[in-house]
Structure formats: C-alpha cells, structure tokens
Amino acid sequence: MQIDPKKQSKQDNYKLLIGSVLPRPIAFVTSLGETGAVNAAPFSFYTVVSTDPPMLSVTVNRKPGGVRKDTARNIAATGEYVIQVVDMDNVEKVNQCSTEFPPHLSEAEAVGFDLLPGRKVKVPRIAQSKIQMECRLHQILPMGGSEAEPNADLIIGEVVWFHIGDDLYDQGRIDTVKLDPVGRLAGVTYSKLGEMFSRPRLGYEEWQKQYGRKS
C-alpha cells in the first residue's frame, strides 16, 4: 500500500500515525486554569528532548478553528505544569480525564484523584501517580495547519523537580516492573508491560566479530 498524505484527510493521516508510532508513553498533565481549577488531561504525543537540562515535549492538538485546548492555554498563561506517568493503578481515572469537562471544572477532582502541592511550581500534582515531574515552560511552537489556524501546539518544558516513589528508586534507576507503565496504541486501546528483553550496544569491532561478513 502506497499512500500520499497530501491526498487524504487529516483524520486519515492521524489514524495511520497512531497505528504506526506505538506503543506511545502517556503524559498525564496537570495545569492551572484562570479560575484556579486544576486541569488534568492525558496526551500520548510525548517524549524526551534533552537530558541537560532534562526537557520533555508534549504535543497538544488544537480544537476546530485552531482553538487551543485548556492544557495548552493554561501552560501558555502560567508557564508551569506537572507531568505524571500513567500506570496500571491509575489508568482508569486518567482515561476518565480525557472527557471534555467544562474549563471551570477540575477533571482531577471530579474523577477522585487526590492533589498534592508542587515543590517548585504552583501547579498541584496527582497523589495516585508513582512519578511526577514538575515542569517550567521553555517554548510553545504552533505546528501544522496554517498560520491562522495551527493544527497543534508543541510544548517543550524543563523538568525542575522529580517526585519518584521510594519503592521504584534504586541507585539512580527506576524499577520498570514496579512502575508498571501503560502506553497508548491505536484507537481507544492501551498496552501494559509485556515481555522484556535486552540487547547490548556493541562497539564497531565487536559488531564486526559477531555480525560482519565472513570472507
């Protein structure tokens, strides 16, 4: 199958992307609205962009007409937010937060999450998450669409504080099995941690010995 993305709809391209780029980690983002309500929403267009300083990116698609979603609007206004990791213990309530609540209502409180204060930012974090990363905005880049109506906001932020469950942390590393992370697949399907395997990263001479052509 050969497909020219310019000859099909935005929705059709979206389906191909989410069916190809997977499993995707989920950023569960809390931010503060102008009324003080704690907005909480999951986004699976999410990755690491830098380690020095530690920086993360989250892409928030816009509503029809190029209108920013609450999360992007809140972050642009306050410059602060928290990213929580989604795991098997909290995914049910995280999914409920994908419901489009009115801006003046807090999704986090509505679904029964407990809030804890941030240490470096004013935005609260979710108690029922094993990892929380307090972030300050570095840059928002409108992406795609047109200048008048962008398709999405690429939000890049610096992690200014990590909160990690004590039982997960071991000599600077995080225990993946205990974290039990959840990822997104296509449609409304999620994935959990399955079989794990390791592969060494070889130096070139080692690679030649193991995989190079034999004369």
Number of domains: 1
The largest β sheet comes out as: 7 strands, antiparallel
Structural class: alpha+beta
Counted by DSSP, the helix tally is: 6
Shape: globular
CATH architecture: Roll
- Cα distance, first to last residue? 38 Å
Can you say what the CATH homologous superfamily is? Electron Transport, Fmn-binding Protein, Chain A
Q: What proportion of the residues is helical, as a percent range?
A: 10-25%
The strands making up the biggest β-sheet line up spatially as: 3-2-6-9-10-5-4
What is the CATH topology? Answer: Pnp Oxidase, Chain A
Please give the number of β-strands: 14
DSSP strand content: 25-35%
CATH top level?
Mainly Beta
Question: Helix and strand succession?
Answer: HEEEEEHEHHEEEEEEHEEH
Please state the CA-atom Rg, rounded to the nearest Å: 19 Å
Which regions have little confidence, pLDDT < 50, spanning 5+ residues?
none
What does this structure look like?
This protein has 215 residues and is an alpha+beta fold. The protein has helices spanning 10-20, 70-78, 91-96, 107-111, 176-179, 204-211, and strands at residues 24-25, 27-32, 38-43, 46-51, 54-61, 80-85, 115-116, 125-126, 131-143, 152-164, 169-170, 173-174, 182-184, 190-192. It has one domain: Electron Transport, Fmn-binding Protein, Chain A (Pnp Oxidase, Chain A). It contains six helices and 14 strands. It has a seven-stranded antiparallel sheet with strand order 3-2-6-9-10-5-4. The two termini are 38 Å apart. Residues 19-176 form the Flavin reductase like domain. It comes from Kroppenstedtia eburnea.
